[in-house]
Design brief:
mainly alpha, 79% helix, globular
Length: 430
């Protein structure tokens, strides 16, 4: 059997099924099965690798964080976080845009999902911004770009996927590594939003009644306590990521159904069903990706790509630039989770051979893939934002250009200044 033909079968079948709009999990599994069939290997290998891929205690963190995010999305925490953000930055010119930036960061710290971020915060902020005279394309662009903070800020389940795909990378280290990059992203997006708001002549936000300040602060503190449980437990070493996720679920459940009581307890059934569907999709994707990764290793594709990139240049900075461009281009047709699971085993050996820390590379990959969520044709965050704002993808994509440039600048800074990502993990994780 020819290795070259096997690689062609793997790549061509993957691309064809992707173009035919097969679900990404079936695309990964199907191309793996075809390649193994050609190589005359036992097909049971696929099943064995898929089971092994999800047979990990670490994966328990994913359903916990997804469930916590679903409860908080349904329970009105987004509105309380928006009120908290408005209290601090709402009176600045273009204040609603800045409130949007901060609210997306804070809610992303709870949900860990860019799509949950844009749908929860966006459903409140985009109509409010339009009502106050903000252009629809700008309102959606601010919300969509700000929601990307959710994939960088812990407890991003995409960081868990990277840690699993990388093999041996600490989830706690990944969570800690994302904090300062997220703050860098927040500041740069706020500056960009403010400059555009001044140029377009948007007004300051409405003042908040002083009588409401204590309630806003209390509600905001109680909502953000979920993040304290997650990050505080990890920072202090009291909890693992999985244990923090379980405690966050319990706290979110009590706060939503017994303190705020914005939705009835019967709503938990719908939340659990939605969580189960999401977890099932994620787990099948992880299982299929493990089999796909095995066939990549069997065909020695990672080592071939390593040799190819090192032939192009043995300069670490040049190779990282090439990888960034590659990831940004692939982010348009591919969704975030499969990109992480497929490309991490391929690209990680390349960068580690050049002395790049796996945690640092994880932040680079996560942000690259996050930017891809804003680019058509598979930009899920872009589509959700456009649906909420009732504005065309073309107009929003044009409005996103300044934010794209700023995020790419942040990406380059994080790529070439590794201490930004590695300082906190080095401080807390021994």
């Amino acid at each position: 059997m020819s290795t070259t033909v096997a690689i062609l079968i793997l790549v061509v079948s993957f691309v064809v099924m992707l173009l035919l709009r097969f679900p990404i999990s079936l695309t990964i599994a199907g191309s793996t099965l075809l390649t193994i069939w050609y190589l005359d290997l036992p097909l049971i290998v696929v099943g064995q690798r898929m089971i092994q891929g999800i047979n990990s205690f670490t994966l328990l963190a994913i359903p916990f964080f997804i469930l916590a995010g679903q409860i908080m999305s349904e329970g009105g925490m987004a509105l309380r976080i928006i009120n908290l953000a408005q209290l601090f930055v709402g009176r600045i010119r273009g204040g609603l845009a800045l409130v949007n930036n901060v609210a997306c960061m804070l809610f992303g710290n709870l949900s860990g999902s860019a799509v949950a971020d844009v749908s929860s915060v966006g459903s409140v902020m985009i109509p409010a911004m339009k009502k106050k005279g903000y252009d629809a394309d700008y309102s959606v662009a601010v919300t969509a770009s700000s929601s990307i903070q959710g994939v960088v800020m812990p407890p991003s389940h995409n960081m868990i996927l990277y840690a699993i795909a990388a093999g041996g990378v600490s989830i706690s280290s990944m969570f800690l590594a994302g904090v300062i990059p997220c703050l860098l992203l927040l500041v740069s997006l706020m500056i960009t939003s403010y400059i555009i708001a001044r140029k377009r002549g948007y007004q300051k936000g409405d003042p908040i009644d002083r009588k409401m300040v204590p309630k806003i602060l209390l509600d905001g503190f109680m909502s953000m306590l979920t993040a304290v449980i997650i990050l505080g437990g990890i920072f202090s070493g009291l909890f693992t990521a999985t244990e923090s996720g379980a405690l966050a679920c319990l706290y979110a459940f009590i706060l939503t159904f017994f303190v705020y009581r914005d939705i009835p307890l019967s709503r938990i059934v719908t939340i659990l069903k939605r969580t189960f569907r999401t977890v099932a999709m994620v787990m099948f994707l992880i299982a299929a990706s493990d089999a796909f990764g095995w066939i990549l290793a069997y065909l020695q594709i990672p080592s071939m790509l390593t040799d190819l990139l090192l032939t192009a240049s043995d300069n670490k900075f040049v190779v990282l630039l090439i990888i960034n461009v590659l990831l940004l281009l692939l982010g348009a047709p591919m969704d975030m989770a499969p990109m992480i699971l497929i490309l991490t085993p391929i690209l990680l050996p390349v960068v580690t051979s050049l002395g790049v820390d796996p945690v640092h590379f994880g932040i680079i990959m996560i942000l690259n893939c996050g930017i891809g969520l804003l680019t058509p044709p598979v930009g899920s965050v872009l589509f959700v934002g456009c649906a909420i704002g009732k504005v065309s993808i073309e107009k929003v994509t044009k409005a996103l250009l300044p934010f794209f440039l700023v995020m790419i600048l942040d990406l380059l800074i994080l790529t070439y200044v590794p201490s930004i990502s590695l300082w906190l993990p080095g401080l807390f994780v021994q």
